[in-house]
Amino acid sequence: MQESAALMNILKKIYKACFFTLFITNVAAQNVDVALPADTGLKARIDNATGKLFIHQINVSGNRRTKDYIILREIQFKAGDSIDIHTINEAFQLARQQVYNTTLFNEVKIELAMISAHDIDVNVAVKER
């Protein structure tokens, strides 16, 4: 019984390592900037029952004239929401496109930062026209 539990733990760790490798590769291939701390390893919290990451906060930077709420209202997710790990790349692409479509910015970057085993921060960096 203990051997099967140990084997399940090893399999879970392998699965998580493979997931993060694929996640980072997939996000980088689609021009979404991802900032993960070097010591993240296998510590990123994924709600095992639902497969979701939780958004702790959304930070906006680079805007001087445009108010934060103008940018935040264009993003489909908010602080406190959870994002399915299988659709996070599409969610970031959509958020980037929606902010860019306001025509207020020359450049929009969405970055993910792991802050704990369960929570992520979303950093939105813009360059105004």
Structure write-up:
With 129 residues, the protein is of the alpha+beta class. 36% of the residues lie in helices and 26% in strands. The protein has a 4-stranded mixed beta sheet with strand order 2-1-4-3. A hairpin with a 4-residue loop joins strand 3 and strand 4. The longest helix has 28 residues. It is elongated, with a radius of gyration of 17 Å. The termini are far apart.
How would you sum up this structure in a few lines?
With 129 residues, this protein is of the alpha+beta class. The chain has helices spanning 2-29, 68-72, 88-100, and strands spanning 52-61, 82-84, 105-114, 119-128. The relative contact order is 0.20.
Helix amount: 25-40%
Biggest β-sheet description = 4 strands, mixed
Strand content: 25-35%
**Order of secondary-structure elements:** HEHEHEE
The neighbouring-strand order within the major sheet is 2-1-4-3
Distance between the termini: 63 Å
Low-pLDDT segments: 27-47
Q: What is the general shape?
A: elongated
- Tally the beta strands: 4
Structural Rg: 17 Å
Mean pLDDT level: 77
Number of helices: 3
Class by alpha and beta content: alpha+beta
